[in-house]
Design a protein that fits this description.
Length: 503
């Protein structure tokens, strides 16, 4: 128990975006300092009735905050759920036992299920600072989790959030581990599977380390922040949806972990598996088609690594009660022509509309994944799925289902457009395209403004094996502002081998 009496202060909402971190503000002359002995960056707890929240203290030496007030950032104000002006109790939060577990993991120890349960609960309750969260992410990245730890972390992440259940048995999902720019197969696959009658309540994340996630691209077309009742209505009527998972509280710890992984550009194997499978399990999925791209600049660069990752996904999925079909795909270059939400949305529509100039690689990859998913369906034998998927796409049924889902989710009246500021990257020599650097192209698109600027990104004008002349453009970069264009241009000047051509 805290030996020092809490101090009562008036709650003040401070309009500051702290990127999902609880921050508390006290005036330097506040009476809590001599009474409680706080200092800057201390952890403090606010309480009102049965509501509590823990944050990191910032000290203010300006007149905009009163000495009898305690300010909280926008995120913490929403999480606390107390009216501005209420008198709240300020106190010490006590020690977190889970910080000892994080220190042990940093030293290479194996953690127990109980320890993961406590860590994940503290993450969801916002009891960690960004420093402690970063330590946990880095510890799991540095000291790879063994397969049973991944099971424990997955189940712990499922346990703290909402878990959906669906009538009718089989629930199908599709996911890619990422790392390949423009690989926007999900809207096509979901449309094909749903058109055949399979239930596909697809929940997707926003971009972590890429220029666009499925949710970012779908937001070009329609609303992706669906309530659970609305999501159920859409799935009941159309067999599928394409929603942002963060809006319905599925595996909420994952969204907090992602907020740390994104700026660090970290996507460690164990946390990636736990992240993907916890979201799928929470969404009520029973069957999953998983795409693992393999290539020299993909996340997975060696066949033996891909095989090991396949076995790990199959093991963890089996332990948490899911069936997974892993597809190891060609990850040597971007898929489709566009990298960035609007450009990828344009490719998706071209494929669904069966346009003659639709990117063939995106179409064929989506058909292969949809074919594997269709083979989950009763009456579809192994080997029949690909041709069935091709017929559903060719017939226009997939497009009709996609348009129905977009309308049901809330079609955007004015979709965003491609960024107005652009420049081209040109071939330094004639020949054929021999190598494409996925990481550099993705980085270029992000510096151009994607995915925050929906119209920012990169057009891929030449693919592997295609001929190119000296001075001919191989990439076209789009930005929404001149500043982002300059930033992308500076990066392009230093990265001469994003697209390599040889005679």
């Amino acid at each position: 128990m805290n030996p020092v009496e809490p101090q009562r202060l008036k709650l003040r909402r401070i309009p500051i975006d702290t990127s999902r971190e609880n921050v508390v503000f006290l005036h330097a002359d506040c009476g809590a300092f001599p009474t409680l002995g706080f200092r800057a960056l201390s952890k403090v707890q606010l309480s009102f009735d049965h509501k509590t929240a823990i944050g990191t203290l910032d000290v203010v030496r300006a007149p905009w905050l009163g000495v009898d007030e305690v300010g909280v950032c926008e995120y913490m104000f929403e999480r606390l759920g107390v009216a501005e002006g209420a008198w709240v109790a300020l106190s010490y939060p006590g020690m977190l036992e889970s910080t000892n577990s994080i220190r042990r993991k940093l030293a290479g120890a194996r953690l127990s299920r109980a320890e993961y349960d406590q860590i994940v609960r503290d993450i969801v309750d916002d009891r960690f600072s960004k420093v402690e969260l970063t330590a946990f992410v880095c510890a799991c990245s540095q000291n790879n989790l063994d397969r049973d730890e991944i099971v424990d972390l997955t189940e712990a992440m499922v346990a703290v959030g909402r878990t959906l259940s669906w009538d009718g048995g089989m629930v199908v999902d599709k996911h890619c581990i990422g790392g390949i720019p423009g690989n926007r197969t999900t809207p096509i696959v979901v449309s094909i599977l749903a058109a055949h009658g399979l239930k596909v309540p697809k929940t997707s994340s926003r971009a972590i380390t890429s220029p666009a996630g499925t949710a970012d691209t779908m937001e070009v077309f329609c609303n992706v922040e669906l309530s659970l009742p609305r999501m159920r209505e859409i799935v009941d009527k159309h067999n599928g949806c394409l929603a942002w998972g963060g809006a319905i509280d599925l595996s909420p710890a994952d969204d907090v972990i992602i907020s740390v992984e994104r700026p660090l550009n970290i996507d460690s194997e164990g946390q990636m598996i736990a992240s993907i499978l916890s979201k799928k399990k929470s969404a009520g999925s029973t069957h999953l088609v998983l795409d693992i791209p393999l290539g020299p600049t993909a996340k997975v660069r060696r066949p033996e690594t891909a095989a090991g990752l396949r076995r790990m996904f199959e093991y963890v999925a089996g332990r948490v009660g899911m069936h997974v079909e892993v597809v190891i795909s060609d990850g040597r270059q971007p898929v489709g022509r566009g990298v960035g939400p609007v450009l990828e949305a344009r490719d998706v529509l071209a494929v669904l509309r069966n346009e003659a100039n639709a990117p063939a690689d995106l179409r064929e990859h989506a058909l292969a994944l949809a074919g594997r998913g269709l083979e989950f369906a009763p009456g579809v034998r192994g080997g029949q799925g690909l041709e069935l998927a091709r017929e559903i796409l060719r017939s226009g049924k997939a497009l009709a289902r996609f348009e129905a889902i977009v309308d049901a989710q809330g079609r955007r009246a004015r979709p965003p457009e491609v960024g107005a500021y652009s420049f081209e990257i040109k071939a330094g020599r004639a020949g054929t395209v021999q190598r494409m650097d996925n990481f550099s192209i993705a980085r270029l698109a992000k510096l151009a403004g994607a995915p925050v600027s929906k119209g920012a990104g990169v057009e891929v004008l030449r693919k592997l094996g295609e001929p190119v002349k000296t001075g001919e453009p191989v990439l076209r970069v789009h930005s929404a502002t001149p500043a982002e264009r300059r930033l992308a241009e500076q990066y392009a000047e230093n990265e001469k081998e994003m697209v390599s051509c040889e005679p």
